[in-house]
Structure formats: structure tokens, C-alpha cells
Fold this protein.
Amino acid sequence: MYSDIEYKATKLIKQGKEAINSDFVQLANWIDETYDVKTMNIIYDTIKADNRPRLQIIFENAVNKFSDNLKQVFNFNEEKQHAIGNQFKEIVSSKRDARKWSILNFFKKDEYQTEGLFVVFSAFEPIAKVEVIEKIPKSRIKELKAQIGNSDIWEVITACHTAIFFFYTENQVEENANNGVKEHLSKLFFPLLKPFDEFNYFKEQDYSISLDSKENFDKNYEGNWYYYFK
């Protein structure tokens, strides 16, 4: 989520206000050269439940390269997890060996533990898009709905990195998905998000709103937003 400290730290790097931790530059370069990607940030922490060390590799938008299933980005490719984990262990080990020759650092405790290291991957851009959508004032969406003046539209809701225009019936959804109305609504909604698109991730030619119906909402989700977005 855009409220997570990992996202906020990576956003500062994207803005040019901070830089990736120098301890991870060597690993980031190796990842980029090996997999032809651009690593934005690397964060080391521990999983509280069992104090297991974790390495979070944050890309801009290439996380699918590290998934075994493109529809399930959290189904990480184990071979790549192990390869990156082993590379990190080698880097930590070489630095540990170098410290042996320094009296000042000889007794310094290792900052990074690698036993049982868990490597995970995430992408910055999708979360940044969610943040953009969430920044749109509800009042502007309400104004747009009034401006459109289509009595067949029941509600307009923002979700993830888009907006959902709810018509009343499924028939209306089907009709407006194929008569040019969806494209028209997309063009009308796009200017609402653009002022908040700091990194220019949204492109008008690629952007599209989604359509749904109150009929579907009531029938399959009991008219409950919690169930709908669950």
C-alpha cells in the first residue's frame, strides 16, 4: 500500500531526494545486469513472527519477471529467489572477510543475517497509480457525474488504479461497453487523475475506466462494498 514505509522510502528515491542504501548497490547492479531490469530499492528487515531475515527487492514495474504465474505476482520464482539470496550472501560474506583485517571492525556484529533469508519482489508503479486515484477529491468525482448527466449511471467509485462506473442493469453495462460510451467516460475521467500523476504513469491512450452494475452489486455482493472489494 502507498502508506507502507517501503513505498514511501522508494518514492523518495524516485523523486531524487534519497538514494538506495549503499550496502545494496552491488546487489542491485548484479540483479539489473542478470535479469535486464531496473532495481529501484532494496530493503532488508526481519519478519517479526520468527525473526527471519527478509530482502525486499523493489522494481519499478518488472515484478512479473520474477513470478511463475503472470496472474499471481506473489507466486515468486524460487530459482530467482535463491539466486539473488545466494548473491547477497556472497556479498555479505566478502565484506565480513574484509573486516577481519580491520581491528576497528573485527568485533563489530554483522548487520545482515542471511540464514534462512527470504527474498520477495514488488513493484512501485502499480502502488503509485493507486495513490494517484485515491488523491482525487470525491467532490470532483461527484461533479463529473453531474456533468455527464447520464441517468443510467447509478454511482462512480474509485478502486485500485481506475474508476468504476456503475450502471443500474447488466444490460446497460453490455450496451455501453460496445457503443463508445466507455471510451467517452474514460476521456472525461482522465483529467481528474492527471494533476496527481507525479511520475506520469498514466497515459491517456492506454487508460480506461471499468463498467459494472448495481444489479450485479446487489445480486452477488448483497449490496455491500466490503464484500465487493474483498
In short: The CA atoms of residues 156 and 165 lie 5 Å apart. The chain is about 45% helix and 20% strand. The longest strand covers residues 39-47. The chain has a mean pLDDT of 91.
